[in-house]
Amino acid sequence: MLRLCAMSRNQEIRPDIDDGIDRKVLAQLRARFLKVNAGRLQRAMLALSSRQQLVLRLLPLLFHVNHPLLPGYVSAATPAGLSGFEPDESLLAEAQRLTRSFVYKPARGKSEAPLHGLFLMGSLGTVAQAEQSDMDLWVCHDPQLPAAAILELQRKCRLLEAWAATQGAEVHCFLIDPQRFSRGERDGQLTSDDCGTTQHYLLLDEFYRTAIWLGGRTPLWWLVPVYEEARYPQYTQTLLNKRFVRADEVLDLGHLARIPAHEFIGAGMWQLYKGIESPFKSVLKLLLTEVYASEHPQVRCLALRFKQAVFANQLDLDELDPYIVVYRRLEEYLLERGEQERLELIRRCLYLKIGKKLSVPPRGRSKSWQRLLFERLTASWQWHERQLALLDSRSQWKVRQVVGERRALVNELTFSYRFLSQFARLSEAGSSLSSRDLGVLGRRLYAAFERKAGKVEYINPGIAPDIAEDSLTLVHMPAQDDNQDSQWALFSGNLHAQEWPDYAPLKRSRELIELLAWCQRNAVIDAGTRLTIHPGDSDLGDYELNNLIGSLQQAFPLPLPSVAESALLQASQPRRVLLLVNVGCDPLKAHSQLNVHLTSARTDALGYSGVRENLVLSLDQVTLNSWNELLVSRYSGADALLDCLRDYLNSLPAQGPHPELLVRCYCRNRASAIAQRVEELFREALQRLAEQPPSRLLLQIQQRYHLLQLQAGQVRHQSLPDLPSLVSALGEELPQYSPLHLDRHALEGHDLALLLPCGRPDCLQLFYRLDGDMAEVSLLDEHNALWRQRLPFHDEQTLLTPLQRFLQSLQYRHNALLPLNLELPGNSLEILYYEILPPLPGRAQRLERRAAPTAAVNQAFYDVQAIVEPDDHARQHVTLYCNHREFSELEYGTQLYQVVASHILAQRRTGGRYPCYITDLDLSRIYPQQQMQTVHYLHYKVQLEDRLNAALQQA
Fold first, then answer.
1. How many angstroms separate the most distant Cα atoms in the chain?
2. Would you say residue 455 lies in a domain?
3. 109 and 140 together in one domain
4. Which residues constitute the domain of residue 871?
């Protein structure tokens, strides 16, 4: 029985399978779908060129027959024959125009037709059809086709695609096994803009509401009422079993009763991924995914709405247009939520997607159906001519228009990501999709749009094709008061000094390079841009500005390469670093203004001329990292170079290649030498950073010393004002042996420049240099820590023997705590002796090795041993032994050193007050064994000797 429901003048078909179905009703339903299909196909043809129309008309015939002279022929064995297809005379005439020898031979039976259906996917026949629209062709074949036959069919598809290209048509053929497809099994992408392999039902939804049938069997889905979708398998089985429908007239791709939650996540992620580069195209589908997800699990997808409209005989092609159907549903959703701003964005995205410029008169005499449709639609939106003109001029949009649109698009993309993340958590659908994918996508969005200090904002993610300005004015604006800094501003146009204060700038920045990097990242400046400079109190000139822009363009050419997923799975790392030295400042400005030219043999940029001027006043570092973020940092002040070097080294990855480093300088004086010196310093630091064990690097800038401790990820910079501070810093304990490298200009002419690079592990090296009746004694211990002391000099034996005795006693103590195994390396520390020549006050030039003193073996000596111990109050107590006689603070208190001094004088035959030396020292209660270092002992030795010798002089 058939029940009809009147809706205005239309008749709605509501079949009830339990009451029986009239085959005429099913035929009527099929006719309605075919009527819509014919209208869409006719609209598709209207927008195609004559050659493209030929391709579309001939495709069913070319799949239906195999003829050696027709396009797409592979072999006689290639599957051919489209179910129920019979070409008309006009189509056969078109084929004969391609090859006169073609004669059509009708198929002998439907069973011999291995191709079950031919469908056109994509934007053809829709309001969004454009000249460059491609044709995605679904070729549905017999599930029983053997693998060899499918390979033949694939070859035929490739040949037809190539032929279509010669006719100006872009065709993509996709082979479909209906049985496998209905089960959700797919071999690959099914459209040229596929959303991945997990969105089966969403793809099916798009197919049912957009596909144009070209020939073969029609979808069985057409004949199932929406209210029976949940019983689709039973309903269709009844149709086939009771022969309401013949199996060789329909093909079954499945139903849309339920869409799994994970498909919304997968589809949303894919659209977000594409939206980062081209947001206008993705926003519509993103919001549709949000609508579907918000309805889950009772999703009323648009294909069901489309089918319901056909059942209700509502066949208005305009309202059934796939894009209009999408818009109407999004409009409902956003109006229900009261989100007018998002609705306006959706309208703009749809308008730009359609691409019909309503502010421009039509090309022909009559308006296209797309134009008429959109004129009615925009009128209902109450859009005025000015708004239409603005959207139509998108190809000419510049910075101001792009920045305004970016805000809305980024808000939408960010909202969509948060919605998807929350939906994944609430629906617990993340099991079928890796949570890693959401994390990676979040990082893509973060890298593309998140603002953070120093990051150059990307303002044009596919919004406008070219935002380069014809002319720009760059202004250095002075600070208005003490609470403000000076700034750089960029204005559109060529403005005079009296004009720019009356205009709003396109962009402001505290520093020039930050502004120029923004211009480069967003292609605001190109080869045709004319730049006007108002440098203010900076030293910037046309030559330097042009070179700065050129360096940025060379270092960071556009478009940037796409970011691989592997890069987003780990923290961002620098890929390319551009260092720009002395931007907008002349290091010798004062001399240039006075027309004074310094002449000196000292040309080092870090210690220039006799007064050792530092010519590196500032550095701007521009970094492109592995996430395609462009970051700008500025360093200025006395320690600018070292702070920049420290931060650069700390940013390097622990493993993997170092970033490409470029150093440029364009200031007015000594630019090339400055750039070369900075690059040399950075490369040396990089080389030393790779060494094991971790090393140190010593530099001298002007009169200051800088000590860099190099260890990956932990580079520290210590600034030291003078030589005593440096010596003190070099004398600090080290946890392990640490090589010390000197910059080639550090400590020039000083004896430290000769001895500091000589450090060796597990070795004590003692250096002395004569200075009249005194000697400067230095020692590098087993960890390469420095110790220095000035001592009276009589001869080498008296100078070195006490030190040798002390160092040997330390070795005895050290070795006594180790296993007695002569094969173990490092059981004893080698002691080497050197003299620095020539003596003072000459300039230190060389080291000469000296033999160890022999007096310690041949002559007896007076033994003075010290033991230092802590008490419970963190105080240290000293016990002295003079030739094994004990002198303790417990016995003598504060008079200890006076008593010991008197005892030593009494032992001397002449009573001389010459210095007394500690020959042995025990600090085992002060330092654990593993932390004991020779320099510790030497520091205590000097302190004890100073107190003891002061007491000797007073005794």
1. 140
2. no
3. yes
4. 864-954
